[in-house]
Amino acid sequence: MNYKKLAEKLLPDAPSISGFEEKYPPRNLAKGAEVTRLAPSPTGFIHLGNLFVAIANERIAHQSDGVLFLRIEDTDLKRKVEGAVESVKNSLRYFGIKFDEGAEIDGNNTYAPWYQRQRADIYRAYVKDLIARGRAYPCFCTEDELCALREQQTTEKKITGYYGGYAKCRNLSEEEIYRNIEAGKPYVIRLKSMGNPEHKIKFHDEIKGDITVTENDQDVVILKSDGIPTYHFAHAIDDHFMRTTLVIRGEEWLASLPIHLELFSVLDFELPRYGHNCSLMKQDGETRRKLSKRKDPELSLDFYRKEGYYSRAVKVYMLTLLNSNFEEWYLKNPEKPLEEFKFSVNKMGKSGALFDLDKLNDIAKNELAKLSAEEMLAFLEEWTNEYGTDAQKTYFTNKEYLLNVLNLSMGTTSKKRRKDFTTAKQAVELISYFFETPQRSDEYRTDAETRKQILSAFLVSYRFEDDAQTWFAKVKETAGALGFAAEMKDYKQNPEHYKGNVADVAEVLRIAVTGKANTPDLWSIMQILGDTETRKRIERAIKE
RNA sequence: GGCCCGUUGGUCAAGAGGUUAAGACAUCACCCUUUCACGGUGGUAUCGUGGGUUCGAUUCCCGCACGGGUCACCA
């Protein structure tokens, strides 16, 4: 078989491979600097799992004074979604992932282009070379034939795929090949695998440690019938010529590592180091499973923006899952920039972690409790402008009033901060009673008759000018007069002597004024609302 | 099913051949309290299973079970 002639016939316009090594030379970086990448396919939104891997790659690159680049794997034109690249970039920017090079960032860089569709020449050159060397061949099998083969293998309990004796186009005669080409039959180019699955290879994974890999024997497709490479081939070419040093990717890729190993070997490229990151899991009924784009739209990064999660909180949570010693470090250094944490690949977990919303929420509360009222206002306003209701947008017209509300709600003036806010969405809803009259509340735990007594009695003695002490003394007085314990201690000693205690009375007042059982200091709230509004609300509550 | 990866409380997990088996979230109790929170103290709760190796194993080895991933002209 004249392989050179065949290569020329199949890919007449493909360039020679000479020159590419010079065109994309090894990077001139300091020792220890890592080149990492993010290589999403533009098939829609990006989710938490992507961010998870992204943060790891970002930390590794920038911590070592290396490079992080963005490559777009757009080889599958069927699944392409318009605007996906912009969306990916925006989402990642929101979470502080900055690329040094890549698509939409650095089009004229030495290692560009960053869209795989624009790199066709390189792929085709190497495919042609492989054919010329007899290490790749055209395959004319149709989809139906492959399907039938798979069925046959399944019923025979054989391993499915195109390999060994099942790879029938591998043994086509020269004559048959040319006849097929002349007949205009569509074809793909397959790798002629030399592997043997009996052979086990020891492989060092940067995250998983030493693992066993089975040698590949599948004649995988490297060039699709439309002339575009498959992921596997593009990965080998691109990560070689973009001079990636460390590939951190999801563990779903572990299964195709044997293919990549053989590809790098047959292309005579130096292998990058690999780290296969465990996937983020989700509880799904009885079982848990990998987060999936299709099944878990609520875990899209946009979801967190819509809910108004503070980006740093999400990042902190990701880091605690990513590096087991991060949480302890952060506890000791709550004020330090996240970048000062020394991220290490070998501290990354080996088993998939279940996504825990409670934990995220706890982190979110703590993060928001670090903000000043001004910062909080800016954060809430940004969210509201994009996702809030028209009514909520009006909260921001009187900034001075809002600042008072926020200072009180966050407890910025007291020594202990409140931690009521979890997300922007929830926070804006939480402070709504400062701007809108609360609806009839179902949070009451006291019967209507007693409520009326409490509220009416309170209204009689209430004076807006009273200071906090005086005000509360009156609350106690009211409580006592109606058979409630004015002092907590008295109540605890003899609970049976009372209808309840001050806390119950205060709760009724609180709900009447705010519609909520959980709010900051009531007196302060009344001060912010003003005399008229406070009375109006209590009177309304009495009539309920 | 083949191949690969994994298995410490409800969750995230540290850990090491001999420990009272860290810590965080959640949960419960109590304390503080001028109400709501914040905060503080303490409690409940974990080494999948069977064999080895060893004076001793949760830690090392083997089997099993269970969970996960993957087997495309998708990435």
Outline the structure in words.
By secondary structure, the chain is mainly alpha-helical. Among the domains are: 3-15 and 120-277, HUPs (Rossmann fold); 373-432, no CATH class; 448-543, Arc Repressor Mutant, subunit A (Orthogonal Bundle), CATH 1.10.10. Helices cover 44% and strands 11% of the residues. The protein has helices at residues 3-10, 20-23, 48-63, 84-94, 120-132, 143-155, 174-182, 231-241, 257-267, 301-307, 311-322, 326-332, 357-368, 373-387, 390-393, 399-410, 424-430, 448-461, 468-481, 488-493, 502-514, 522-529, 531-543, and strands at 35-38, 67-70, 101-102, 136-139, 188-191, 200-205, 209-214, 221-223, 246-250, 273-277, 280-284, 287-290, 353-354, 484-485, 500-501. Strands 1-2-3 form a three-stranded parallel sheet, with helices on one face. The radius of gyration is 33 Å and the shape is elongated. The N and C termini lie far apart (94 Å). The protein binds one RNA strand of 75 nucleotides through helix 6, strand 7, helix 8, strand 12 and helix 12.
Mean pLDDT: 92
How would you name the oligomeric state of the polypeptide chains in this document?
single chain
Q: What is the terminal-to-terminal distance? A: 94 Å
The CATH architecture name of the domain at 3-15 and 120-277 reads 3-Layer(aba) Sandwich
Helix content: 40-55%
Shape designation: elongated
The poorly predicted ranges are none
Number of helices: 23
What value does the Rg take, in angstroms? Answer: 33 Å
CATH C-level class of the domain at 3-15 and 120-277 is Alpha Beta
Q: How many beta-strand runs? A: 15
Kindly report the spatial arrangement of strands forming the biggest sheet. 1-2-3
- Biggest pleated-sheet summary: 3 strands, parallel
Which structural class fits the helix and strand makeup? Answer: mainly alpha
How much beta, percentage-wise? 5-15%
What is the fourth-level CATH superfamily of the domain at 3-15 and 120-277? HUPs
Task: Write down the CATH topology of the domain at 3-15 and 120-277.
Answer: Rossmann fold
